[in-house]
C-alpha cells in the first residue's frame, strides 16, 4: 500500500513560550511495497514524522493517505498499521503467545477469528520469527533480539497495510543488529508490505532501505536510493552525515589550490577561497608527489579494521587530521608505520560552496 | 552469632559503621520491640490451652471478629476502587487544584485517628450534616457496621493511592501506545494491559489497607458506638478487657490480632515477591 | 500523544467522580472540624483553648513528640544504613521485625507495654520498689509512641537507599573520607527528601497517636492527657465544641504537614523541570 504524505507540519509547545518547530511542511511519497529508512540525527524530526504516520501524534496541518484512503483523522487503532517500538514495548505480564495474540483478541467479537484460528495464526507468526519453542515464555526470559522478533510478530498479527518501526535495532548489540537487519530485509521481500523505519545509523539505513529519507532540523534534505545518496549527495549536510569527511581549505588561483606548503591542481575552479571535501577512501597515498598534487603528510595512527586499514594523517597545513582508508596490500607496500612521510593524491573532491554540488576528479587513480 | 556477624562485617565490608549501626539497631529493636512482645508471650504462657481456647471463643468476641473482618473487608474493597481511581486521575490528567487534591490524599495519615473518629461520628450521627440527609432515606451509618467500614476506609485511603501512583507514573507511554496500535479499545487495553501492570501494587496497597483497618481503633470506636454483639470491634474488646483488669483475656485476644496481622503481612510480601520475579525473568 | 482514557468524555467523568468523592470523604470532614470548633464563636474558641487542661495536654503532646522524633530519626537512619549497606545473617529478619508496629493494632502495642511495665508486669515490681513510675505517666506514653512510630523513617529510607546502591559511598572511602564525612557529604544529600518525608510522618503520628497511648496513659486529666486523649474525653463529656477546639489544633498541625510536603513536592517539580529545560 502506498503512503502519501502531503504538507505535514508539527510544532511543539504553546504559543508564546518556547515553541519548537519539529517538522517543516513535509511532502513524501512512498510506493507500494517499498522499504524506506528515515535517517537523521536526533532532533531531526524523523521520529515525529513516523509517529504522525502511525497516528500516535497529531500533525498541525497536512494530510496522509494510505493508497486512496485519507487517514489524516483516522484514530491510530483504526489505521491498520503495525508499529514496532524502540524498546519493544512487550507486555511483560503476558507470555510470548499472548503478546502476539493480543491484537486478534482485541478485535470486536464480530470480526474476531475463532480461538482455533487465532491459535494457528499466532503459531504461524511465531514460526516465521523462529520462536515457536518460546510461546509460553515471558518477555523477561528472552534476549533483546528475541524480544524484538516477538514485537515484530505482534505487529504483523493483524496483517497491517503499513509497518512502522522506530529505531528497531537501536537497543541491540552490533552482531544481533546485523543479523536482524538481514532477516527483516528477507521478511520484507517475502511478505511485501510497505515499511517505514527510523534510524540514526547511516550504515543501517543504507543497507536496509530501498530509498533513504535524510532529515535534519525538521526538513527532508534528500530522498534517494542508497547508491545515489552516497554518490550524489544533494548538499553538504547529507554528505557529512553519510560518512567520515576530510576537509581541505585553501586559496585558488589559476586553477591551483594552495594551503601552506600544500598544492593541488583544481581544473575549472574559479579563483578565491574554497573548501573541498573528500571521503577517506577517496585518498590515494604514494611515496612521491607529482605535478598535480603536492600534499605531504605523515602517518600519526594506524587502525586495522576488517578488510582495510585506517590511517590518520597529519600535516602542518592541515587544521584537523585526515582519515584515509587503504587496502592491506597498499598498506604493506607503503610500509605506512607511524611517522612515515607520504604524499596524498585526492581521487575525488566534493565541493558544496557552489550553486550546485560539484565533484572533481583531479587525479586518475593509478 | 552476633560476634560472628561482626567478624564477617569487618572482613568483607568496605564501608564504615557496621558495628555501630548493628549495635544501635539491635539495642533498639530488643528494647522497644522484642522485650515488650515477649511480655505478651510470657503472659500467655501462664494459660493452659483450654483456658486460652475459652478466652478467644467467647460469643461476644466472635461477633467482634466478624464485624471487624466485615468492616475491614468493605473498607479495603472501597479503597481499592477509590485509590485506583485517584491514582489514575492524579497521574494521567491535569486539572485545576490537582496539587491540592494530591496533598489531601495524605490527610488520613496526618490527621490523628481520634480526630477523624469524632469528626466522622459527628458528621454521620442522626443530627450531623450528612446523617441528617441520610436519615429520611432510612440509611443509618453511625452505630452500624457501615459506620465502622466508613471510618476504616477513611484512615486507610493513602495506602492504595500511594502504592499505585508511582507504578502508574513509571509505566512507559509505549505500553499504552503498543496496545492502541494493536487496535485495542480503551476498556480492553485497560483491563488486559494497564491493570495487570498495576496489579501487584494494587493488591499490596489493598492488603495493607485491610491490615491497617483490622487494627484501627481511634477512628472507629466513636462512630461504632460499641454495642455488644453488633458494633464492637476486636481492638475495642482488648481495651474493654484492660479496663476490667482482665490482662489474661486481653492478651489472648491480642495474640489473635497480632498473629492475623503478621500472617497477612507475610502473605503480602511473599505474593509480591513471586509476582516481581516473573516480570524480571524468573519462572512463573 | 495517544494515551488510554484520554477521550474528553472519559476524562470528564473520571475527574468529576474523583473530585466529588474527595470532597465528600476528605474535604468535608476537614471543614467540619473547624466549623464545629467555631460553632459558638471565636470567644468560646479562645476560652476553650486557654483551658488549663487543654494547655497541659498541648504541653504533654509537645514533650512526647520532641522525645520521640529524634530517637526514631537516629534509629531509622542507623537501621537503614545497616540493612542497605551490609550483608549479614538475620538481615531480612531484622527488616521484618521493624514492620511489626506497622501491622499491629495500636491497642495491642499499648497492651504489651502495660504487661511489661505495669504494676503486675515483669518489671512492675522492681519499678514499684524503686518508686519509678512508667505506666500512667509520661515515660510510658513516650515509650508507646516510639514503638508505634519507629518504622516510619526506616521504611522511607530503606527502599531508596537500596535503589541508590553503595557505589558513591565506596568511592568516598577510596578517597579517604571518614564514616561521618561520608554520611554527611555523600549519603545525606541523596536521602534528604525521603528523610524529611519520614520525619513528617513520624511527627504526625507521634502527635496524634491515640490507641496505644490511651492504654498506657490512664487518662488523668491535666497530667497524662495528650491532645488526642483530651479530644476523646471532652467528646465523651458531650462538650462537642471543646472537643473540636482541641481537634482543630491537631487538624491544623496535620494541614501544616500536608502543605509542607506539597510545597516541597512543588519545588522539586519546578527544579526538575528547569533541569529538563536546560
Describe the model.
The complex is a heterotrimer of chains A (366), B (284) and C (278). Chain A is an alpha+beta fold and 366 residues long. Chain A has two domains: 3-241, P-loop containing nucleotide triphosphate hydrolases (Rossmann fold); 246-360, RNA polymerase II/Efflux pump adaptor protein, barrel-sandwich hybrid domain (OB fold (Dihydrolipoamide Acetyltransferase, E2P), Beta Barrel), CATH 2.40.50. Chain A has helices at residues 46-54, 96-105, 115-128, 144-156, 174-191, 202-208, 226-231, 236-241, 328-334, and strands at residues 3-12, 20-30, 35-39, 61-66, 69-70, 81-84, 162-166, 194-199, 211-216, 219-224, 246-253, 256-259, 262-265, 272-278, 283-286, 293-294, 296-305, 308-314, 322-327, 341-346, 349-351, 358-360. A six-stranded mixed β-sheet of chain A has the order 6-7-8-3-9-10, sandwiched between helices. A five-stranded antiparallel β-sheet of chain A has the order 14-11-12-13-16, with no helix packed on it. Chain A has a five-stranded antiparallel β-sheet with strand order 15-20-17-18-19. Chain A is elongated and about 80 Å long. The model of chain A has no long low-confidence stretch (mean pLDDT 89). In chain B, helix 7 (113-124) packs across helix 9 (145-155) and helix 9 (145-155) runs antiparallel to helix 13. With 278 residues, chain C is mainly alpha-helical. Helix content of chain C is 79%, strand content 0%. Chain C is built from 14 helices and no strands. Chain C has helices at residues 8-37, 42-49, 52-85, 91-97, 100-103, 106-117, 124-129, 138-149, 151-164, 167-174, 179-208, 211-217, 227-236, 240-277. In chain C, helix 11 runs antiparallel to helix 14 (240-277). The interface between A and B is medium-sized, with 28 and 24 residues. Chain C: The complex is composed of two ATP-binding proteins (CysA), two transmembrane proteins (CysT and CysW) and a solute-binding protein (CysP). Chain C: It comes from Salinicola rhizosphaerae. Chain C: It is found in: Cell membrane.
Amino acid at each position: 500500500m502506498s503512503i502519501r504524505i502531503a504538507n505535514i507540519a508539527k510544532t511543539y509547545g504553546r504559543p508564546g513560550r518556547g515553541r519548537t518547530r519539529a517538522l517543516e511542511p513535509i511532502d513524501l511519497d512512498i510506493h507500494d511495497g517499498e522499504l524506506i529508512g528515515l535517517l537523521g540525527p536526533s532532533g531531526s524530526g524523523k521520529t515525529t514524522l513516523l509517529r504522525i504516520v502511525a497516528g500516535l501524534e497529531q500533525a498541525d496541518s497536512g494530510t496522509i493517505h494510505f493508497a486512496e484512503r485519507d487517514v489524516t483523522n483516522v484514530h491510530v487503532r483504526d489505521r491498520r498499521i503495525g508499529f514496532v517500538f524502540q524498546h519493544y514495548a512487550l507486555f511483560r505480564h503476558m507470555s510470548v503467545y499472548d503478546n502476539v495474540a493480543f491484537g486478534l483478541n482485541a478485535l470486536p467479537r464480530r470480526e474476531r477469528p475463532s480461538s482455533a484460528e487465532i491459535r494457528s495464526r499466532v503459531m504461524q507468526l511465531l514460526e516465521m520469527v523462529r520462536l515457536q519453542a518460546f510461546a509460553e515464555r515471558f518477555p523477561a526470559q528472552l534476549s533483546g533480539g528475541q524480544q524484538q522478533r516477538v514485537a515484530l510478530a505482534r505487529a504483523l498479527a493483524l496483517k497491517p497495510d503499513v509497518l512502522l518501526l522506530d529505531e528497531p535495532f537501536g537497543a541491540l548489540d552490533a552482531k544481533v543488529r546485523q543479523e536482524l537487519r538481514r532477516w527483516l530485509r528477507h521478511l520484507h521481500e517475502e511478505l511485501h508490505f510497505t515499511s517505514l523505519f527510523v534510524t540514526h545509523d547511516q550504515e543501517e539505513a543504507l543497507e536496509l532501505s530501498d530509498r533513504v529519507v535524510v532529515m535534519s532540523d525538521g526538513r527532508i534534505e534528500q530522498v534517494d536510493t542508497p547508491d545515489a545518496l552516497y554518490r550524489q549527495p544533494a548538499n553538504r549536510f547529507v554528505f557529512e552525515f553519510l560518512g567520515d569527511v576530510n576537509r581541505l581549505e585553501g586559496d585558488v588561483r589559476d586553477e591551483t589550490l594552495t594551503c601552506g606548503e600544500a598544492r593541488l591542481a583544481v581544473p575549472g575552479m574559479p579563483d578565491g577561497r574554497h573548501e573541498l571535501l573528500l571521503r577517506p577512501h577517496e585518498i590515494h597515498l604514494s611515496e612521491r608527489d607529482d605535478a598535480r598534487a603536492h600534499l605531504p603528510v605523515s602517518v600519526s595512527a594506524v587502525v586495522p579494521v576488517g578488510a582495510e586499514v585506517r590511517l590518520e594523517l597529519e600535516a602542518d597545513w592541515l587544521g584537523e587530521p585526515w582519515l584515509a582508508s587503504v587496502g592491506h596490500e597498499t598498506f604493506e607496500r607503503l610500509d605506512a608505520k607511524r611517522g612515515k612521510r607520504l604524499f596524498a593524491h585526492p581521487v575525488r573532491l566534493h565541493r558544496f560552496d557552489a550553486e550546485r554540488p560539484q565533484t572533481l576528479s583531479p587525479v586518475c587513480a593509478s | 552469632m552476633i560476634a560472628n556477624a561482626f567478624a564477617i562485617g569487618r572482613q568483607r565490608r568496605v564501608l564504615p559503621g557496621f558495628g555501630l549501626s548493628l549495635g544501635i539497631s539491635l539495642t533498639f529493636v530488643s528494647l522497644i520491640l522484642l522485650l515488650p512482645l515477649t511480655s505478651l508471650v510470657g503472659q500467655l504462657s501462664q494459660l493452659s490451652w483450654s483456658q486460652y481456647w475459652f478466652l478467644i471463643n467467647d460469643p461476644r468476641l466472635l461477633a467482634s471478629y466478624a464485624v471487624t473482618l466485615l468492616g475491614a473487608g468493605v473498607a479495603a474493597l472501597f479503597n481499592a476502587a477509590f485509590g485506583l481511581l485517584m491514582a489514575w486521575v492524579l497521574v494521567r490528567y491535569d486539572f485545576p487544584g490537582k496539587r491540592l487534591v494530591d496533598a489531601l490524599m495524605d490527610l488520613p495519615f496526618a490527621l490523628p485517628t481520634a480526630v477523624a473518629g469524632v469528626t466522622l461520628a459527628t458528621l454521620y450521627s442522626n443530627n450531623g450534616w450528612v446523617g441528617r440527609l441520610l436519615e429520611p432515606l432510612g440509611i443509618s451509618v453511625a452505630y452500624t457496621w457501615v459506620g465502622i467500614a466508613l471510618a476504616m476506609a477513611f484512615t486507610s485511603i493513602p495506602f492504595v493511592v500511594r502504592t499505585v501512583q508511582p507504578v502508574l507514573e513509571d509505566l512507559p507511554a509505549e505500553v499504552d501506545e503498543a496496545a492502541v496500535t494493536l487496535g485495542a479499545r480503551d476498556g480492553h487495553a485497560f483491563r488486559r494491559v494497564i491493570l495487570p501492570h498495576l496489579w501487584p501494587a494494587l493488591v499490596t496497597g489493598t492488603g495493607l489497607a485491610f491490615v491497617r483497618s483490622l487494627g484501627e481503633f481511634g477512628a472507629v470506636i466513636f462512630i461504632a458506638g460499641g454495642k455488644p454483639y453488633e458494633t464492637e470491634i476486636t481492638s475495642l474488646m482488648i481495651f474493654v478487657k484492660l479496663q476490667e483488669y482482665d490482662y489474661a483475656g486481653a492478651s489472648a485476644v491480642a495474640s489473635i490480632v497480632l498473629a492475623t496481622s503478621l500472617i497477612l503481612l507475610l502473605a503480602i510480601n511473599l505474593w509480591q515477591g513471586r509476582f516481581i520475579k516473573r516480570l524480571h525473568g524468573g519462572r512463573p | 500523544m495517544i494515551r488510554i482514557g484520554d477521550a474528553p468524555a472519559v476524562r470528564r467523568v473520571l475527574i468529576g467522580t474523583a473530585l466529588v468523592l474527595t470532597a465528600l470523604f476528605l474535604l468535608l470532614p476537614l471543614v467540619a472540624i473547624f466549623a464545629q470548633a467555631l460553632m459558638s464563636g471565636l470567644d468560646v474558641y479562645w476560652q476553650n483553648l486557654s483551658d488549663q487542661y487543654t494547655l497541659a495536654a498541648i504541653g504533654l503532646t509537645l514533650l512526647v513528640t520532641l522525645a520521640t522524633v529524634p530517637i526514631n530519626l537516629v534509629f531509622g537512619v542507623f537501621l537503614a544504613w545497616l540493612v542497605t549497606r551490609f550483608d549479614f545473617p538475620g538481615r531480612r529478619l531484622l527488616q521484618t521485625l521493624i514492620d511489626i508496629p506497622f501491622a499491629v493494632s495500636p491497642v495491642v502495642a499499648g497492651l504489651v507495654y502495660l504487661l511489661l511495665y505495669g504494676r503486675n508486669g515483669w518489671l512492675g515490681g522492681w519499678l514499684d520498689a524503686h518508686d519509678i513510675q512508667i505506666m500512667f505517666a509520661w515515660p510510658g506514653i513516650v515509650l508507646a509512641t516510639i514503638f508505634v512510630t519507629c518504622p516510619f523513617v526506616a521504611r522511607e529510607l530503606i527502599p531508596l537507599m537500596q535503589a541508590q546502591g553503595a557505589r558513591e559511598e565506596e568511592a568516598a572511602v577510596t578517597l579517604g573520607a571518614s564514616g561521618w564525612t561520608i554520611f554527611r557529604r555523600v549519603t545525606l544529600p541523596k536521602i534528604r527528601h525521603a528523610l524529611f518525608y519520614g520525619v513528617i510522618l513520624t511527627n504526625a503520628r507521634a502527635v496524634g497517636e491515640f490507641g496505644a497511648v490511651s492504654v498506657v496513659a490512664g487518662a488523668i486529666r491535666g497530667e497524662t492527657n495528650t491532645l488526642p486523649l483530651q479530644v476523646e474525653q471532652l467528646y465523651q463529656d458531650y462538650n462537642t465544641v471543646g472537643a473540636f477546639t482541641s481537634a482543630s489544633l491537631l487538624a491544623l498541625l496535620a494541614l501544616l504537614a500536608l502543605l509542607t510536603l506539597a510545597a516541597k513536592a512543588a519545588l522539586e517539580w519546578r527544579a526538575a523541570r528547569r533541569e529538563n529545560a536546560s
